Amino acid sequence: MSQTAPRNLISALILVNEIFDSDDESTDSDDESTDSENELYQDEEELNEPSILTTRVSTVSRRNVPKVAGYEEIVTERMQDYDFKTHFRLHRSTFDLLLGKINIKLQNQTRPTSRCSPNKMLLITLWILATPESYRSVGCRFGVCKKTVFKVIRRTIDAIYEMASTTIKWPGATEAQNIISANSSTAGFPGVLGAIDGTHIPIRTPQHSSGTYINRKGFHSLQLQVVCQHNLKFTDCYVGQPGSMHDARVFRHSEICTDLQNSTLFFPEDSHLIGDSAYPLSDRLLTPYRDTGNLTRYQVRYNFKLSSTRMSVERAIGILKCRFRRLRFFDSPDLAFISKSVIAACTLHNFCIDENDVHFENSEELSSGGAATINSGNNIYNSTVTARAKRDRIARLL
């Protein structure tokens, strides 16, 4: 009798432990099926996480999540052209041309046994750029897992990014003359080769030095600086500086600041860029007079015509963010990937203009230049005597 009781007690304890072990395994399986997007970055970028967590997750088998079947076929064969443009932000003909340009690159990056064709990879990437939808829901829509979406968008963004050097480029001599003439016909402002402006790309709180990314409006962002033609096409894009940096300092770090010194190569016949009062006044970058209440009528008219001419860059930024709504907020910890995605979106913007693929959606953002353009309104650089003389001369001519 004395020996039977301990044996029964031991058996009961073993049974209880097995029950709790079984509950732990089922809990781990459920947690694995609801992992967040951050775990994709932790897996791909090898972020520093406890090794015990990695070992525990790797031993749990993932359950199959039901996915939508045949959506690619619906898009390719049955979706109307208007609906296709609404969802993917490109005409079907523009999509086919774009796919033809990057098809080989996507094929080289895809395994023969992969379920993602170049066509599906581009569809997934455009959907991600066009909407704020999560990777999980996009993967469910296109019949792939979340990790596949993560890899697909990076490979496709890389392929589109490589097109930037031939799609976003400074105008040649003949094209420069056409741009100057077109800008002059807009408001009568002479010699304008382009308009420069900046906007903010909202991002999640960065893991390091997060305070430097908080802009003047109080949210984390990356700076995007663009130079735009009269037809809303970008000729120069620069992205990646933290949101707290002033527009003039961003300009000083960009290559276009160095290009301003090469007058004969980049600015034929005394041409120039125009910008707002946040930028430094120079021979090749004209800015408005600072309004202290004592402007002459020539200076007031100069400011009005300069503002009317540079509306093109505000509209271009608005259309860019309206077409690719992911630029309104990037929920990603990888700042380098965000910068590359922004340049890819600018490349697609120019590609659509080249193919006469006009963005048809009306939005309040089109009239506000992106609604996130921020500057202090004060020129923090000392303007040169020749630059002030050039500005005064143009003001009298107007």
Strand-helix topology:
Layout: H1 4-33, H2 38-45, H3 51-58, H4 71-78, H5 81-88, H6 92-108, H7 118-130, H8 135-142, H9 146-161, H10 164-167, H11 173-187, E1 192-202, E2 221-228, E3 234-242, H12 247-253, H13 255-259, H14 263-266, E4 272-274, E5 285-286, H15 297-309, H16 311-323, H17 335-354, H18 385-397
Parallel strand pairs: 1-4, 4-5
Antiparallel strand pairs: 1-2, 2-3
What does this structure look like?
This protein has 398 residues and is α/β, with parallel strands linked by helices. It has 18 helices and five strands. The protein has helices spanning 4-33, 38-45, 51-58, 71-78, 81-88, 92-108, 118-130, 135-142, 146-161, 164-167, 173-187, 247-253, 255-259, 263-266, 297-309, 311-323, 335-354, 385-397; strands spanning 192-202, 221-228, 234-242, 272-274, 285-286. The chain has a five-stranded mixed beta sheet with strand order 3-2-1-4-5, with helices on both faces. Strand 2 and strand 3 (234-242) form a beta hairpin. Helix 6 (92-108) packs across helix 7 (118-130) and helix 15 crosses helix 18 (385-397). The chain is elongated. It starts with a helix and ends with a helix.
Number of helices: 18
Query: Segments where pLDDT lies below 50 for 5+ residues?
Result: 12-16, 18-36, 43-60, 367-382
- What is the strand arrangement across the widest sheet? 3-2-1-4-5
Question: What is the distance, rounded to the nearest whole angstrom, between the alpha carbons of the first and last residues?
Answer: 113 Å
- Helical amount among residues, as a percent range? 40-55%
Q: Per the principal axes of the C-alpha atoms, what is the gross shape?
A: elongated
CA radius of gyration: 27 Å
Strand segment count: 5
Helix-strand string: HHHHHHHHHHHEEEHHHEEHHHH
In percent, how much strand structure appears in the residues? 5-15%
Mean pLDDT: 81
* Coarse structural class: alpha/beta
Largest β sheet strand count, sense and barrel closure = 5 strands, mixed
